[in-house]
Amino acid sequence: xxxxxxxxxxxxxxxxxxxxxxxxxxxxxxxxxxxxxxxxxxxxxxxxxxxxxxxxxxxxxxxxxxxxxxxxxxxxxxxxxxxxxxxxxxxxxxxxxxxxxxxxxxxxxxxxxxxxxxxxxxxxxxxxxxxxxxxxxxxxxxxxxxxxxxxxxxxxxxxxxxxxxxxxxxxxxxxxxxxxxxxxxxxxxxxxxxxxxxxxxxxxxxxxxxxxxxxxxxxxxxxxxxxxxxxxxxxxxxxxxxxxxxxxxxxxxxxxxxxxxxxxxxxxxxxxxxxxxxxxxxxxxxxxxxxxxxxxxxxxxxxxxxxxxxxxxxxxxxxxxxxxxxxxxxxxxxxxxxxxxxxxxxxxxxxxxxxxxxxxxxxxxxxxxxxxxxxxxxxxxxxxxxxxxxxxxxxxxxxxxxxxxxxxxxxxxxxxxxxxxxxxxxxxxxxxxxxxxxxxxxxxxxxxxxxxxxxxxxxxxxxxxxxxxxxxxxxxxxxxxxxxxxxxxxxxxxxxxxxxxxxxxxxxxxxxxxxxxxxxxxxxxxxxxxxxxxxxxxxxxxxxxxxxxxxxxxxxxxxxxxxxxxxxxxxxxxxxxxxxxxxxxxxxxxxxxxxxxxxxxxxxxxxxxxxxxxxxxxxxxxxxxxxxxxxxxxxxxxxxxxxxxxxxxxxxxxxxxxxxxxxxxxxxxxxxxxxxxxxxxxxxxxxxxxxxxxxxxxxxxxxxxxxxxxxxxxxxxxxxxxxxxxxxxxxxxxxx
Length: 736
Description:
two-stranded antiparallel sheet; 67% helix; mainly alpha
């Protein structure tokens, strides 16, 4: 019996062992199931993260329709169009209904003041020179620090913004792809970074610093002075300059393509000033400051172009030294060319030529590289760039506190450049905004700051390095007292096989002048026409004439080869807009806090934090997340008042007169039956007698920081056909 019992026990594993095995298998199966679910959820989360924007276009943008909707309506029943602010996909400017017309107040004030200035400057240049000198002396002595501070704050602020979570916010609607391919966008940024500056300042500015280095730096005409000269030039044309353009361009693009406002500087400030003040006194003041800054900044570029053309004509024709009378004649002839291009419908042809200009400018730089001291330049370029990076903080810290000589240098160069870039920022910023729709803020900021700067470093390194090399080698015509307009023509005179090049350069500069005036005039026409992207031709011509008149006055303040008159007026007129630039930073950052994408992120963080704390408290390690309703104030909003006007006012749709109109975000239908076809028909009727090509110049034309050079017309952001415009909010998703 005992043996039988023993044998039975030996072959029977017993109930306890079976139970343990079964439990272990169940645990393994449970773990595998949980891991599979986790992997699936992780993959789903990644997919959703990549496609959030596109999927939002398929969501029902109304508030939740579940069984708790009635409860939500009791506590959160006041959203515009019954749409929660975190579910708004954004609003594009071309989806809005607005009535464009000439803003008589802005036009009268800005136009009247500038016309009066031109009349005063032509009739009594000596008195203008005296007042300009006094204002210039005061500005450089008392507010030179402001320009330095603005340049530093803008660059630092934009880099912080680019790498912050706000950098993921698109300059467009959710799911909207970039209007242009990365290659096309980079090409247009490159086009915006070259022009008269490469031909005028590229050879002359580094040579000036080599012969006369900034105070308290290097001995003249030494190896250290060579690299210091290149670094100083890069400092003036590099990251700080393009950060100013990126600030204005990014803020305009965000307001227009994410918030659906007009392409006006004042549109940036709606969150800061309120809608009433933005459309009233405060907004008009901002637009007036932008017009005045653009007028004088662009006029300075036109004056420089005229000086360079005049020098070329004098050399080619043998007419002798250039005089102010010669410059005035050149400006009048080129202004006539601008008027013809603006009113006769040949603007598109001019813009095609401007595309060729860009190719020619790149070709000229390449000729200098390969016909000049090639090996020397290839060694200089990386060394100069590293010198720039190494000495950047030292150059940023130069101010009046370093002594009177440093203050004088800053006034003539650094402060002047910061003022010039500030003056150009409305113009260049508007162009960059119009080619960057659909890109994220991070892509936009980093691309706009670093791509053109890097390309300019190469171009300026080649041109400046060659002029310094020729000067040190005793090349014919190079002296230590050369005027800036002469340096480039002297440089190409010392290159072999390019006796024909001065003629090409004169043509290139002339077309730059015309397209620059054309494009800048359209931007100012937009600013005086409530953001109308196709302002009346007579408005465009008016601003072009005023701009040319200011250029003449600037040149009359000095001799035919000096820059003093240009520098004085640019610095004085840029002071108000320097303050505007600081307000742009505050306004843009404030508005980004209420962006739907930023709110979604905040809700997500709050929801996850709350769920993790509650889950761990109730279940330890064994809990999962599930979306369930909560008591008001205890949910994902984390105390955010989602009905506050800061979050909701901006997406309330209105008609052409600003009256609220119902709108269905689910279907894209307006309550009063309005469609984009209606607006297209009205626009066609109102502009039937006019040719709209002049307005397209603002998008087709790119500008370098000092010339307003024109880009390829095929890159026109407004070249969308009527049929594409009629296709609704997502019409750009299939763009290349």
